[in-house]
Amino acid sequence: MNKKALIFFSIIICIGIFLRFFKLGVQNMWIDEYITAVYANESNFFKVFLSSYVNDVHPPLFYIFTHFVVKLFGNSEFTLRFISVLFGIINIFIVYKIARSFFSEEIAFITLI
Predict the structure, then answer these.
(1) What is the predicted pLDDT for the residue at 102?
(2) In angstroms, how far apart are the furthest CA atoms of the chain?
(3) Cα distance between residue 54 and residue 57, in whole Å
């Protein structure tokens, strides 16, 4: 990756991060976020795992990550949505790498836009 492409990639990453964090805690919570809050606010890791495993069809790893974020930073709309934002940012890199493995660098950049 040359210097010009690196600058362009950095700009795309910064815009992607900004758009994912923009007004993150402003909207009210939806029902699925309430469910996430219930699982994330369990008293310990094992209760999060068991209650989400037994009562939800989704794998419990998301709830476990959210549990630790809520314990570290408190319970708010922002912290409940933080893990989704984090994986969204990581997804930018993954999409670029997959597109780059099949296509040219220009096409990989187009997939990010």
Answers:
(1) 95
(2) 51
(3) 8
User: What does the chain look like in DSSP terms, one character per residue?
Assistant: --HHHHHHHHHHHHHHHHHHHTTTTTSPPPHHHHHHHHHHTSSSHHHHHHHHHHH-SS-THHHHHHHHHHHHH-SSHHHHHHHHHHHHHHHHHHHHHHHHHHS-HHHHHHHH-
Each residue of 29-88: pLDDT tens digit? Answer: 888 889 999 999 988 889 999 998 888 888 899 999 999 999 999 988 899 999 999 999
Name the burial class of residue 105, with classes exposed (0-12), middle (13-18) and buried (19+) by CB atoms within 10 angstroms of its CB. middle
Q: Which residues lie below 8 Å from residue 46, measured CB to CB, with a gap of 6+?
A: none
Indicate the pTM of the whole model: 0.81
Residue in the block written with tokens 């029902």: 31
How far apart are alpha carbons 3 and 36 in whole angstroms? Answer: 42
